[in-house]
Design goal:
alpha+beta; 3-stranded antiparallel sheet; 25% strand; single chain; 155 residues; globular
């Protein structure tokens, strides 16, 4: 399985989950490591773009990863079994508690969830503490820039 992420250049090869643990995220509490990826490069672009307030001035990279193909390593809950409010803006307790409990259980390498930005797309949260994390490989790291048309003001 392939997955991607867009990050600051200096973090492109970091799969420790420390960045997500600094403040927490949609699927993890602060101080709980997690690695957020998209299952398509396009959803990575959308997921990161919604957090931009201006054109990024720091170098960005898109990292392609190869994940183990063993379906038993992944949990993909039915969207109806996710806690009510999982897609709230900003992220709140329902998704954070659900994901943190999953991360602490260390039951699976990855949690496949719908994107809150576009629920037809899927993201995957990797548990860096899972033993199969050693089988996650970086395929390539490429320069990334947002298309300039995304920043054009239209009236």
């Amino acid at each position: 399985m392939r997955a991607w992420r867009i990050s600051k250049a200096k973090r492109a090869a970091d799969l420790s989950g420390v960045g997500a643990a600094l403040e927490g995220g949609r699927w993890n509490d602060a101080e709980v490591a997690a690695v957020y990826l998209g299952l398509s490069p396009a959803i990575c672009c959308l997921e990161t773009f919604v957090h931009q307030t201006q054109r990024p001035v720091i170098p960005m990279k898109i990292t392609e990863l190869e994940l183990p193909d063993d379906p038993g390593l992944y949990l993909e809950p039915d969207v109806h079994s996710l806690p009510k409010g999982w897609a709230s803006l900003p992220p709140d307790r329902p998704s954070m508690s659900f994901g943190t409990a999953w991360l602490k259980s260390c039951s699976h390498l990855g949690l496949i969830v719908p994107s809150a930005v576009m629920t037809l797309e899927r993201n995957i949260v990797l548990n860096p503490m899972h033993p199969a994390m050693a089988r996650v490989k970086i395929s390539q790291i490429l320069d990334f820039t947002y298309d300039e048309r995304l920043f054009v003001l239209r009236i």
